[in-house]
């Protein structure tokens, strides 16, 4: 092989090495950038600030940003929730995500109509709508000066729709990079309100 050929081979090897080095450095830089964005988003959304609105269908809708954490970070920041999950026989490292909802039931009823009279001092009062059915026995006691409530029963229906939406950050004109996830929870039932939503996306 002539000196010229060796020179050409050397240039080709150098170019291949340079391309390989560029790929490795770029991949490492992207990893560092993604981890920086992850930590930044977790810091900004650590309190799980929740937005609530009534959507165009008249339903209650709640929105909260997710935290993107690894198993060790989750165990450190959510000690109580972690113990609860472990006590149920699950391993954090095997979970893809953790969602904790804290709903609150608020029922406001102006009056309970009497649906049945058992005797002069005992009545059955009921209330029914799309989501709740309540039945109770009302008795007048102490010479009908006091009211006693008995056999109280309440059946309640509910429907929660949970959606996860990926949020992107535009890096170049034709390239968008995912930065975090927003969870949307919609309640069709007027009585169900949510005080807090915690969503953790567990990274491996």
Explain what you see.
With 204 residues, the protein is of the alpha+beta class. The protein has three domains: 1-44; 47-106 and 158-203, no CATH class; 114-154. It is built from three helices and eleven strands. It has helices at residues 3-44, 71-77, 79-87; strands spanning 51-54, 60-65, 67-70, 97-105, 114-119, 122-128, 132-141, 146-156, 160-172, 175-187, 192-203. The chain has a four-stranded antiparallel β-sheet with strand order 1-2-10-9, with helices on one face. It has a four-stranded antiparallel β-sheet with strand order 5-6-7-8, with no helix packed on it. It has a three-stranded mixed β-sheet with strand order 3-11-4. The protein is elongated. The relative contact order is 0.19. The model has no long low-confidence stretch (mean pLDDT 78).
Number of domains: 3
Structural class: alpha+beta
- Count every beta strand, where a strand is a DSSP E run of 2 or more residues: 11
Count of separate DSSP helical elements: 3
Enumerate the strands of the largest sheet in spatial order, edge to edge or round the barrel: 1-2-10-9
Q: Compute the gyration radius: what is it?
A: 30 Å
How many strands, which pairing sense, and closed or not: the largest β-sheet?
A: 4 strands, antiparallel
Q: What is the average of the pLDDT values?
A: 78
Content of β-strand: over 45%
H/E topology pattern: HEEEHHEEEEEEEE
| N- and C-termini, Cα separation | 50 Å
Stretches where pLDDT falls below 50 for ≥5 residues? Answer: none
* Helicity level: 25-40%
Shape: elongated
